[in-house]
Amino acid sequence: MMKRLLITGAAGALGGECRRRCGHLAEIIRVSDIADLGPAGPNEEVVQCDLSDAAAMMELTKGCDGILHFGGKAYEGTWDVVRTSNIEGMYNLYEAARQNGIKRIFFASSIHAVGYSPVTGPVDSQMEICPDSLYGVSKAFGEALARMYYHKFGIESVCVRIASALPQPMNHRNLATWFSYDDLVSLVERVFTVPVLGCPIMYGVSGNDRKWADNSDVDFLGWKPKDNAEEHRSRIADLEDMPPSDSPDFHYIGGPFVTFGIMKDDGSQS
Amino acid sequence: MMKRLLITGAAGALGGECRRRCGHLAEIIRVSDIADLGPAGPNEEVVQCDLSDAAAMMELTKGCDGILHFGGKAYEGTWDVVRTSNIEGMYNLYEAARQNGIKRIFFASSIHAVGYSPVTGPVDSQMEICPDSLYGVSKAFGEALARMYYHKFGIESVCVRIASALPQPMNHRNLATWFSYDDLVSLVERVFTVPVLGCPIMYGVSGNDRKWADNSDVDFLGWKPKDNAEEHRSRIADLEDMPPSDSPDFHYIGGPFVTFGIMKDDGSQS
Amino acid sequence: MMKRLLITGAAGALGGECRRRCGHLAEIIRVSDIADLGPAGPNEEVVQCDLSDAAAMMELTKGCDGILHFGGKAYEGTWDVVRTSNIEGMYNLYEAARQNGIKRIFFASSIHAVGYSPVTGPVDSQMEICPDSLYGVSKAFGEALARMYYHKFGIESVCVRIASALPQPMNHRNLATWFSYDDLVSLVERVFTVPVLGCPIMYGVSGNDRKWADNSDVDFLGWKPKDNAEEHRSRIADLEDMPPSDSPDFHYIGGPFVTFGIMKDDGSQS
Amino acid sequence: MMKRLLITGAAGALGGECRRRCGHLAEIIRVSDIADLGPAGPNEEVVQCDLSDAAAMMELTKGCDGILHFGGKAYEGTWDVVRTSNIEGMYNLYEAARQNGIKRIFFASSIHAVGYSPVTGPVDSQMEICPDSLYGVSKAFGEALARMYYHKFGIESVCVRIASALPQPMNHRNLATWFSYDDLVSLVERVFTVPVLGCPIMYGVSGNDRKWADNSDVDFLGWKPKDNAEEHRSRIADLEDMPPSDSPDFHYIGGPFVTFGIMKDDGSQS
Amino acid sequence: MMKRLLITGAAGALGGECRRRCGHLAEIIRVSDIADLGPAGPNEEVVQCDLSDAAAMMELTKGCDGILHFGGKAYEGTWDVVRTSNIEGMYNLYEAARQNGIKRIFFASSIHAVGYSPVTGPVDSQMEICPDSLYGVSKAFGEALARMYYHKFGIESVCVRIASALPQPMNHRNLATWFSYDDLVSLVERVFTVPVLGCPIMYGVSGNDRKWADNSDVDFLGWKPKDNAEEHRSRIADLEDMPPSDSPDFHYIGGPFVTFGIMKDDGSQS
Amino acid sequence: MMKRLLITGAAGALGGECRRRCGHLAEIIRVSDIADLGPAGPNEEVVQCDLSDAAAMMELTKGCDGILHFGGKAYEGTWDVVRTSNIEGMYNLYEAARQNGIKRIFFASSIHAVGYSPVTGPVDSQMEICPDSLYGVSKAFGEALARMYYHKFGIESVCVRIASALPQPMNHRNLATWFSYDDLVSLVERVFTVPVLGCPIMYGVSGNDRKWADNSDVDFLGWKPKDNAEEHRSRIADLEDMPPSDSPDFHYIGGPFVTFGIMKDDGSQS
Known about the structure:
The first copy, chain A, has 7 helices and 9 strands. Chain A is an alpha/beta fold. Chain A has a single domain, classed as NAD(P)-binding Rossmann-like Domain (Rossmann fold, 3-Layer(aba) Sandwich), CATH 3.40.50. A 7-stranded parallel β-sheet of chain A has the order 3-2-1-4-5-6-9, with helices on both faces. In chain A, strands 7-8 form a two-stranded parallel sheet. In chain A, helix 1 links the parallel strand 1 and strand 2. In chain A, helix 1 packs across helix 6 and helix 3 packs parallel to helix 4. Chain A is globular and about 50 Å long. The termini of chain A are far apart. The model of chain A has no long low-confidence stretch (mean pLDDT 96). Chains in contact: A-B, A-C, A-E, B-D, B-F, C-D, C-E, D-F, E-F. Chains A and B meet through helix 3 and helix 4 of A and helix 3 and helix 4 of B.
């Protein structure tokens, strides 16, 4: 059991879920976000701060044993937003973690780091980087940074390329990509309780019949996803018409991101 | 033959060499650097500017057909320096290239993107990212960005993981890592004259007896390095005592970079 | 749901099974065979014709959306028979499909296309072609043709290398090779309902404990075989004495076909 | 030294070259073609006949030790032509070879069996079949048939996927694909003099700087191509303007074949 | 059903378990050990003898159909002990088996033949030999010897690299490495009842959530382990404090063996 | 330059060649054999002793920096001979080397460790162990032992699977397998002068046109064989009639060894 586990991005959906359900992993859970986090619960510490503030990050990470890093932009954004939160923020977090002696980090990477991979081919940890967005490029940066801190300083990280982490699968694409909250939480538990982690890359996806991701590299974690999006198929059929087969949803693992242009400050793309 | 070829970092050693010797590739060579470049030669345009200035980059790339991108920090630096020149600068350059319709870029990446790879194992384009420095992380970022611009916008780039580009091999490590100027120039020629490039990753290294890099992925370029560091062995033996066998020079392809800490503003490491 | 699904070879065992059980996949099922098919059922169209008749094939495929192609010779035959039904017939069908705008085909290929593969080695979609019979050669031809129509014209096909599709496993070899009718039907459903198919090669085999075939390439189909021949082991032990261990049944995935010679018109082999 | 070597397609360019230059491989060279072959030279036997005539093939192969099989259609054709000469003819030849005890065959296959392979990827003997034409499909058929006769009857064949066998490279694409007549002849010599051949697939291409084909599987042949198309680069630049970079010449190893439709009897395509 | 199955090392834990539970595999079970084996049970023959005695081995193996070879030193020992029992003894057994016509052997190899393999990497039959002890070297010798007797004389062996065969998992490392007695016995059954075995290398490990071993090479055996150490996790937590994460238990598959020196006669290590 | 290099088996052909030509690698060359070695030359020490004598080995290795290990049986022998010289002797040498602090060893392994590998397949360092003789098994043992001493104690060894080390190629098989004395000596030089060696497996074979061995794993050595057996082809044709194509010489890399039985004391085989 850790002394203190830091959760960044704790005001978000995944960070919030882990805030609610990972209390047993540490004596104290320190939650952080740029947004309001509400009052601290029992055994909780609440710190509102910005990943791009290096000094704040240094303070935030003091006294922690592990980090669940969900903070930063979790979707495509302008270069300024992506760079500030996912590149600058990632560096600030890892450098602070190093200086404060933190030894293990769960890094919420994304399938968008390899979004141009065809759905019909193999999807594993060795595949070539082929990001589908600035967001995806920032996650590739994050994985490279995590690897450097591992080789040079011994900080262990798992880079979890999260697919579609949602309470329920919501569309036909999610039949392959759904990552249930239960499976997320059980993965977090494994990551912080196995004796050795290294710095693996893996995919955050449930045990869906249609999943294309191969996680055999991390068999040693002993993590077994329990959910299967296929059980939601009839509900999805009610929610969404089957998209046309030339929809990018079904050709690339990045799905709609492959159609994005470069986002501008006014929200338009070019 | 291109209309206008842009060379960034043209005040540096490699950019300067290409400035002198690649005039035949385009009607006009536009050279650029943050440092002084001296007067323009025949068929040359000289533009002094900073990669981190997005507007200047947009101007700089106008009217160009191709880019030889040597600009940015070419060694380990503080995070601020690396981020500004190699991350911010790389984005500015590619985004400007996109908006100005440039279709092909020679990106001077570095072996330090995979610097922790053991010398005694295979070294090829599929190997895992394992940077040995913030500099190496910035090159991994650059490769990811180049891949994204290729898949999304069709801009072709070669990411050349340059080993030790020097007029002559200077130490025992260079027996494996030397990349001669002649071989650099012949590679540049191939990159800008082959009909199709794609977005390959390759190693910039001469035909040294001891080279560990496998470039068979880019056989289609038809590039054949002509130099061999082994011919310089006796001269090197005069220059440098053989380092002890536990020197990092001989264990990791990143050589001494694996021993670096994080550089601080005052030049010290931690 | 398709408008009209064509089933060739519908008078055979597999075609007949699909005729009975795949009615929900299309508004109309058009069944075809060179043999008598009996009267049309509800929502059925019955067309008796010969695969080797190009004009008849052009008629047969009109108005269809998809094809389940079981037609042709399903066992070793003389060259004349194999060529006429499996080579000439295959071409006629695909060319007619192209001209009539059909976009998806389930092609009943066979493990005999790779029948000389040792049972104790890996059996996957990348293995070398090594047919064990003229029948197997004709299936290799069929796969090549399907691939050409995919790359050139966008017609998607799955090439299912069917092992032993039977109501029940009947001998010791079937413990590895059985492909149950339920699993066949569920595979057909997946092939015609997934949004994207491409042109994969896979193995038609149930979830037998002893199956040697690896279908991980088509994980994206989400097909999960439900049957397991092992549950029939005691019944098989009653049916058949264990063959001697030098029986070809257990050395090559093609089993007894590897012992066949070239079949002559009088049914003898040489 | 063989007793009698049969050359099919001996009225064609490659067959003719071998007729002129392979006399030292056998006491008698038997040359055959559907076209006129002129009078027999010393130690020559001339037989005019048609591959699609099974009885003629049986006669033709009598008394031979080896076959150099260049016969059949060597370019895209209508289905009737391709099937007759390259499928029917191939079967007739191999079945006759079997009945007459011939043990080794040089089969002129073609890169068009894998014509849709990208030039920028690996090109080796294990790559997936992806023909670019009916011609390419017929060569895939031929390779499958050769493999079956090898495994079942011990007839050794080399399947040489010939690229561009020409007296000289004639265009920019040939810088990668040229297969010189000298290199063809030296390969033929090796194929008929090595003690063991097996049934390998290899690429017929000279030692061009830009060749993308990997023949390391047949290192045991000890064949070393001597020619290099690069030496013809300036001559080619005079002959042909560089095609635009979106020309299929440079994207797929099949080059222009990927743009072909299905050929009809009147020579048009659809 | 075999006539006579020999079990060596039958006084040990695994040999004893198989003695009790494998009676159905043969009409007679002949058990052997250097230690006392007690009286013969029904259908049992008891032979006390020493593996290093070649003449005794020749006698011991007479009239047998198969061998379950657990005999020899099952832990690190001095060179004299390891050489005598595991090298000399292994040779004596196989040579006697050959002379007495025995055709199938279950060889209890060990993960210590590859003990330096990192837990976080792939662990399969193709991995490099990297023994962690003289014991591990002796098992690598045994596998090489078994392979030679297979290729040269057709004796089939399975080389089972046993991990931690125990009645129950006893410590945290066993969560990955446990091999239950039930799973051992079901594997023995498969090995002696499949029609063809060849000479595969596989891992003896139960279906543990955390198992790192990949046995897909022997899918053809149809062996499905039923036990899972994870179900014992809470009991283990009571038995053993979690070792520190730098414990060799969690870094190498050989676990504590990687820390052993060379054992001397007095039991000390150097 | 080493202080003292030990050569075992120095009365043999390869050891003798190295005795004559490797004097420049160390101040003193200590030569050893069980046979008479004649008088010591300048800078030589001569020690006659037996590998199976552990105490003598301890003395022999004192004060040495490196070992060239050619000692032991270099051909198939009885088990007693092979075990004594190649197993017992190998252990004695490595254990003595460890106790005396020797850090680098050239181990003359043999292709007979993998002699059953087909000549027509890939031959590299990752291939499965498949010895063709007791001699080959002893070399597999030696490689396993060298690996253990490397991982556990840091002793670097190269395991050179020597093919046919001869003054000249003498038969048709040698066209593929010849390893010239010049190439042997240049390899020895590289092994003892590169700064880092690790514990690689490689093949000892010259740059023959027909060589099937792939040494790309040890590119970092910078060793380039200079000889090519093909230049001796006409001389060989005079020496030896081409063996029949079913000769084992041409099917397995172990050549005639695959036909050997187990050797008995009287020299006969069974």
